[in-house]
């Protein structure tokens, strides 16, 4: 049986990424030309061309400023999920601030989209050992799952000690809420990031394809893939006041991303997080 993988999009524009947070003040977001709507239209058309449904982890700020984007996501049969309101790292918030943020964003997305919001993804995968209260806050706010842990070593995020596959962070006796980590693959002496983003743009496509297939065939597990609307937009305005590492990570192979996504959608079966993990889990428990 072919394994369905989860296709996910973190809905934020180029000026909202964490890498630029010290260079672009959030108070100026309203004054910056937004390229999100056009990029989202291209993504939605690409998914439609491949008859694929995806999960869109969306900023509350986007919902407030571009509600038509939210309505398009839902009307085309995709899953709407939360990415927090203003792309603030969980590790930069108190538990009280975090609870207020995720509750506000969930309510806003549900009001505009008209569907229940079950999932959450932290800005820059900023949940981990420094935020032991985060999963409890998400369950308290009514979420069914999080996809916020990346079990790798990275200079800005990562929790290598975490499980590589779905687990219950509140305990095995509490299976109402789960964490679904971004996909990785262990090879001798190293753990490889499978889940997408900048890695997908940097690695040769053949390597990414092999890693996903390896997780599916050898480990019998679905993978989670993610990308951002700005990653298909090589014409986005360039930032001049950033370091060389940040510049490379943000801009590498943007011109190749759309075609690579087209190939990826052809090479594997894809569905929403809800379909791949939550609905399947509920059937198993029933």
Task: Give the key terms.
286 residues; alpha/beta; TIM Barrel; five-stranded parallel beta sheet; three-stranded parallel beta sheet; 10 helices; globular
Describe the overall structure.
By secondary structure, this protein is an alpha/beta fold. It has a single domain (4-285), classed as Alpha-Beta Barrel (TIM Barrel), CATH 3.20.20.370. The protein has ten helices and ten strands. It has helices at 36-49, 60-65, 67-75, 95-113, 134-140, 198-202, 205-218, 244-251, 254-267, 273-285; strands at residues 4-11, 55-58, 79-82, 119-120, 145-146, 178-179, 184-187, 190-193, 224-227, 269-271. Strands 1, 2, 3, 9 and 10 form a five-stranded parallel β-sheet that branches. A three-stranded parallel β-sheet has the order 4-5-6. β7 and β8 (190-193) form a beta hairpin. α4 (95-113) packs parallel to α5.
